[in-house]
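Quick start: what a row looks like.
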Amino acid sequence: MSSAAGGRIVVTGATGNVGTSVVRLLSEDPAVGSVLGLARRIPDWSPQKTEWASVDLASPRVDLVPRFAGADAVVHLAWAFQPTRDPAATWRTNVLGSIRVFEAVAEAGVPALVHASSVGAYSPGPKVRAVDESWPTHGWPDAAYCREKAYLERALDTFERDHPGIRVVRMRPAFLFKRQSASEQRRIFGGRLLPGPLARPELLPFLPDVPGLRAQALHTDDAANAYCLAVHSDVRGPFNLAAEPPVDAELLGGLLGTRRVRMPRTAARSAIAAAWGLRLLPASPHLFDAVLRLPLMDCTRARAELGWRPVRDSTEVLEEFLRGLKEGAGAPTEPLRGRKVG
């Protein structure tokens, strides 16, 4: 999209963690004429210049071409994390639904597609140095999330080959948090029994320090800013997005004021697998395996070509998120609805 005023942007997954931030920034942008937010359920939220449409990407009968017609860019964010115990269901939404989005972008003649990939698309990599966007994107095959993100990287390789006139941008953010996403992410990853101790660190007897459990975080609004910059620029290809410093047990222990206790990977994984098997934890042990292997990302390209820099560091991001957990924070959309627990 050019930076001329009056541009029309379509956002899929517009009511989720990233979608709400992207829609808000686009609605406040004078270079954007209108925003169409697509989601399964229409929210009780009406930003300026924004319209809504109910769309289920998992349905093979969904017709996206009329929705995309005349758009300057499609920002594809829609993603289903649940049901984690039914990978065929998430595949229908995440992979088959994304392919429907790609095909409709081409058929409608949309000039730009900005796609939400992830650090989860990357193959196992180092924890002591950062890798750039050339690192292989084959994911961790045991984890459905990584498997689906990696598959879509291959699908976009083919899409770009077949449609060289369409500008494709792949955003690969770290783990994304904001205050308003706390209740949603509690439900997705922690379940109903976990948040109390998290929101009240004085109840934690210790913080497990698992070797290799080191990852990156980013505020959702900072990620959304990168998406908006990509909409307005002429860039193509992948961009890593993350804040500093990397998050590990030392950082979390200092943040929570909790002593760290070294725990072997096998013990931590066994505890997660047991909770998963008893249906006490919605996040599978396979996702834990993947997190242990995700590389740290170098974000030089985003800084150099997008002019992007995160406003908040990782500590600020986690402090805000933990406050949101304690408060049961949310937003007026179905995925982000708030609920205080624990």
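That is the whole record. Residues 1-5 have pLDDT under 50 and may be disordered. The two ends are 46 Å apart (CA to CA).
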